[in-house]
Amino acid sequence: MAPPPTLPRQRLRYTRILDVAAGFARKGLDSVVLSEVAAKADVPLGTLYRYFPSATQLMLALYRKQLTELHTAGSAAPPAGKAGVGVPAHSLAGVVMEIFHMRLMQPAVEQCLNKAVYAKGTDTTKLLREIDAAAEKAVTAASGDAAVSRVLLLTVTGLVQSVRCRRLSLFEAEEDLKKACVLLTCSGRAA
Q1: Residue 112, Cα to own-chain centre: how many angstroms?
Q2: Which terminus of the chain has a lower count of CB atoms within 10 Å, N or C?
Q3: How confident is the model at residue 83 (pLDDT cuts 50, 70, 90)?
Q4: What confidence category does residue 78 fall into, taking pLDDT thresholds of 50, 70 and 90?
Q5: What CA–CA distance (Å, rounded) separates 10 from 169?
């Protein structure tokens, strides 16, 4: 997989591919056909394959981009203090809820996250590590605590699976996630 482009014209194509891929992410991974993505993005198929050799890498790159945008948007907010100290639970809940909904509403991305494993020296492993780091940065920016971020991201994973398996309704999962944010920010105040 080639690194993201640096030239303006190439960046436009790269961005266009990811924007089109977002529509495909709402379907299952089997529905992500790279030739169709290339056609809709109006880029040569070879260009798409240079950046994204597989549908999995395309979906993971899309999710990484979305997480980076979420972090950038969150960074524009006033700086947060340490966990629980001056960090409103609703601010933290907003960021975590956004990640929850991105994963829930993009089955193709979720399928890639579930099936991809770390395998030494692969492009997918590098991409997964970047995704993990981007998700943690976005939540840490809101919480001020990396440990809180990791706990919340693991909670998101469990809640997404619970909703997908119909063990919880979307409403119940959202309420549980909000409560987890409140509990973690309150425990930071008590410490």
Answers
A1: 11
A2: C
A3: very low
A4: very low
A5: 42
Domain CATH code at residue 82: 1.10.357.10
Q: Is residue 182 part of a domain?
A: yes
Are the C-beta atoms of 82 and 188 separated by less than 8 Å? yes
Report pLDDT for 127.
87
Which whole-number Å values give the CA distances from 66 to 61, 80, 135, in the listed order?
Answer: 9, 21, 10
Q: Containing domain of residue 121, as a range?
A: 8-190
Amino acid identity, position 57: Q
CA 189 to chain centre: 28
Q: Which of 45-49, 78-82, 111-115, 116-120 has the lowest mean pLDDT?
A: 78-82
Q: What are phi and psi of 102, to 5 degrees?
A: -60, -45
The answer to whether 149 touches 136, Cβ cutoff 8 Å, is: yes
Are residues 125 and 59 in contact, defined by beta-carbon separation less than 8 angstroms?
Answer: no
The number of residues making up the chain comes to 191
